[in-house]
Structure formats: structure tokens, C-alpha cells
Amino acid sequence: MRTPAETMALIARETRSQPGAVPKHLGGHEIPGGNRLFALGQFVLHTGTGFGFHYRPGIGVSYTVDPGADPAELELWLYGSVYAAIACLNGLYPVHASAIADNGRVHAFTGPSGAGKSTLVAGLGRRGYPLFCDDTLLLDLSDPGRIVALPGHKRLKLTDHALALAGAEVLGPVGSGTGKSYAAPAAGSLREPLDLASLTFLEQGAEAVLDPISGAARFARLDDDHYTQQLYFDAQAPTRAMMFALRSRLAQHLAMARLVRPFSGEGFAKSLDLAEAAVRQFSKEPPQ
Amino acid sequence: MTRVLAKAADQFSETVIDDEIVVMSLASGDFFSLTGSARAIWELIDGTRTRAALLADLAAAFGRTEADLAGDVDAFVAQLGSAGLLEPD
Question: Predicted ipTM?
Fold first, then answer.
């Protein structure tokens, strides 16, 4: 069993990156552009947009940038898919979520791309809740008595619409045709691992509504996160029994809710009220 | 019928979440959420009871007659059997 501090040190060490050769083959398999491969405990990604990445345990990440590639993309890949892949290979479980912290515990908001995860945590930042992570939440399950969340990157990526909704301070463009800007979290960010308390699933709808999720529905909702789960499947090749045990643990330990919200300004304010109410309620509940 | 009903222990995983039992077939990946009498039947299938003994215990637990419950029990046991969650006859 690793301590959270040891896990933080491991991830910091393993995600070190520098320019270097990236193979086109690994473990006897070819990796064409736009594809990734886990093999031999390693990870190779050729993006199809001029970037290549090769992760090797104990060595870190080497990468290539083709002439003409947009340099702004490099950070997006390193802090996105490559970061999550390295985490998976090192036994961490990634969740496609953005999160804030309250009262020493983490509250995460998950949903597909475009669901408004970053916008919501930016808005909660304006209400005093520090950012814990944006877009990828890493969970360390090595301690059977805890679900430890690891803090992520310290900037938010928001569209112009989201910036206006959340009232966030712009730091600069993300670039690479994303239409997003980096924004500073209004209440700052955290650097220490904390226990995960709740997971709220974001949905779009006409009226803002918060519904607790109970019973087997908690278990079933954990199957929604296809993007990061596929990385975990590819990296760890877990059996059905292993995934069942993992989801069972999350369902038993975490408070869960669904937050339905419109994307209008008025609806956003109400959804922020509901999200904050959920955070306060879940913060009061003792750890499971 | 004197067959002792028993779960096929290596064919499923189960967990308790709130007041529900979630059972997954390891062969198919299908889930079953068991509450109320279904949960009680699942828990009574412990490798010691025949259908008759299970019915008697279930009737006592729910304050119903065995005749009232027999149809639902048989249907549920058949469903569990079809899903491969019970030891075959």
C-alpha cells in the first residue's frame, strides 16, 4: 500500500517529459497516426496531429513534434490523455471529472465533454471553493479504507461562454483551435491529496434539479464514464470481477447525485446554488 | 422437490449498496438489483434449503402464505437459473 504522498511523488516522477524518439511499433504492433497502444507496461500515442508520445516506467515521457504541428497542443496532450494513461499504468483510476474541495474533502462533478464540468467548478471557485482538479480526477485506491483523490492541474480551460457565465479571470488562450482560454481558479487550488466525498453527474435539461442517487443506481452510473474507463481497461485489462469490486467500492463509499441544468445564465446561477447545496450537504455526511 | 438450492459461487460477484444487493453474472456481465422479497430469496439460497424450506422461511418472514408466494419464487429461481447464477439440478 502506498501513502498518498508516495503516490504524488510517483506521478510527478513518471510524468516527467522531454523531447526524444517515439517508436512506431511496440510489442510487435504498429501504431499508426491517431492511435495509441499499451504494451510491455509502456504507452505510445501518435496523435494524427503531429505529436508522438512514449511512456516508459521509471524513465518518463519522450515526445516528438512534427514541423507544422501546433505547439499549443503539446501541453493539452501531456496533461490530458498521456497523464491519464500514465496514471492507469501505475494503478490509479481516472475519472472524467472536475472537482473542488470543502472541509478537507473533495467533491467531483463528472459528465461527458461539454457537460459543463469546468464551468461549474469555476463558478464554485467564485463562491470560495478551491479548485482540486479540472477534467481528470485521479483516484488512488491502494488503501482499502480510503478513496484518495490526487490534486490536478492548477488552471481551468473554459470557452468564452463559460468564462462569461463563471466570471473567471482569463490567463491566456489554450490555442490549438480549442476555442478555450486558461482561467485562474478564483479561490486558488489545492496541492494535497484528500479523500473523495461525492460524485455528482452533470446532465443538461430545461430546469435545474438536484437528485440524490441511491442504491444500485449508484453502481450503474459509474458505467457512464466511457472515455477514461477505456484507458483503464486498455492499461490494466481488468476482469469483470475486478471492475465489479472497484465500482462496488466507489458506490459504497461516495455520496452521489445528478444535477440537471440548463446552459442559460439564469439556469447556471440556480445550478450553482444546487451544486453548492450538495457540497455542503455531502460535507456534513461522515465518510462511509 | 428435494433439490437443495445453491448459488453457483464462481459465476457471480455481489455487493450490498444501501438496501439493495447488486449481483453481476461474470459470464455475461448482466446486473441484477435485488430488493425486498427478491433480496430475501437470494439470501435464503444458501446451499441448505430446498424449495419447500425456502418457501416456508420466506412466508414466515413476510407474513404471507406459501401458496401466495410460490409463483413468484418459482419464477425468480428460474430466472436466476437461466442467468447461470445457481448450481444446476
Answer: 0.88
